[in-house]
């Protein structure tokens, strides 16, 4: 039996090699941003109020995020089942997809055609409000290939509460990111080669054991499998990056390379839109006071 110490040594060694030689992500480029325009009026206000990731970006990166959102909505159909799909729903779904890929300019998801929004949780037979099985997000396979299902209330809750390290939209899109190498297996794109995959999976096994032994603050659902571990720690990486970096430095370093983003450098764990005063400079970069620009009473 390999000790945890040896596992960590192997993982750090392989990670160092991987960081040195780099890797080519399997996500395929489809976007020509030079042809993109700014978002329609009113969209920016919703993003500023609801998406803290967007709110904390620089002015130039906000423009890039907006263009990614526009491109996503032009390529992916969004359908409501027994619920209305409004503009805020569409922007939160698009943001959920843009965030994990933001470190890879001009890239999108090749395995997604449609996002289906449900009015509540659902079960494996896609029936609503089953008290025995409450699924809030699902990436389709088989006859549902190319589709994603999200619970509308859970989607909004993921953006309303940032301190819980959970965001079902981001979680499901990380599964799609995982699928870029052909299947969902919990091995991040770039780790497919055996020399990288085996140390990663052994490292994941060690972290899952820590969760099972109640020696970790990573959400218990992450101990279900390597697949769910990757999605759960991905949520953590985008929701509470400072905390993840402090408590799990090796994992944080691996995720920085995986997503090509150093989220702790520009995201604050404690940031909320309520922290912005009416007389502070508006976060959209206009130069106006917040109350005169994007503030909504």
UniProtKB/TrEMBL annotation:
One of its GO terms (molecular function) is aminopeptidase activity. Keywords: Membrane, Transmembrane, Transmembrane helix. InterPro entries: MetalloPept_cat_dom_sf (IPR024079), MtfA_fam (IPR010384), MtfA_N (IPR042252), SEC_C_motif (IPR004027). The keyword Transmembrane helix applies. The keyword Repeat does not apply. Pfam families: Peptidase_M90, SEC-C. GO terms for cellular component: cytosol. The chain crosses the membrane at residues 6-23. It comes from the Bacteria. Gene3D superfamilies: Collagenase (Catalytic Domain), Glucose-regulated metallo-peptidase M90, N-terminal domain. PANTHER family: MTFA PEPTIDASE, PROTEIN MTFA. This is Peptidase.
């Amino acid at each position: 039996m390999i000790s945890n110490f040896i596992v960590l040594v192997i993982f750090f060694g392989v990670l160092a090699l991987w960081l040195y030689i780099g890797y080519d992500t399997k996500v395929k480029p489809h976007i020509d941003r030079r042809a993109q325009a700014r978002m329609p009026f009113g969209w920016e206000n919703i993003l500023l109020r609801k998406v803290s990731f967007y709110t904390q970006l620089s002015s130039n990166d906000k423009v890039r995020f907006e263009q990614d959102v526009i491109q996503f909505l032009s390529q992916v159909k969004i359908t409501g089942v027994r619920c209305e799909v409004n503009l805020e729903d569409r922007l939160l779904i698009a943001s959920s997809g843009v965030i994990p890929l933001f470190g890879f300019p001009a890239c999108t998801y090749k395995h997604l055609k449609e996002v289906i929004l449900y009015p509540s949780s659902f079960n494996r037979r896609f029936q609503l409000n089953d008290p025995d099985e409450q699924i809030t997000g699902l990436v389709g396979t088989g006859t549902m290939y190319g589709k994603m299902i999200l619970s509308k209330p859970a989607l909004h809750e993921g953006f309303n509460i940032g301190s819980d390290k959970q965001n079902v939209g981001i979680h499901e899109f990380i599964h799609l990111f995982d699928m870029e190498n052909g299947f969902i297996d919990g091995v991040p794109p770039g780790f497919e080669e055996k020399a990288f995959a085996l140390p990663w999976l052994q490292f994941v096994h060690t972290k899952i054991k820590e969760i099972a032994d109640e020696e970790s603050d990573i959400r218990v659902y992450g101990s279900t499998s390597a697949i769910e571990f990757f999605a759960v720690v991905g949520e953590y990486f985008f929701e509470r990056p400072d905390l993840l970096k402090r408590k799990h430095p090796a994992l944080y370093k691996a995720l920085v390379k995986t997503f090509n983003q150093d989220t702790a450098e520009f995201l604050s764990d404690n940031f909320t839109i309520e922290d912005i005063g009416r007389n502070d400079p508006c976060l959209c970069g206009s130069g106006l006071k917040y109350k005169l620009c994007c503030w909504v009473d």
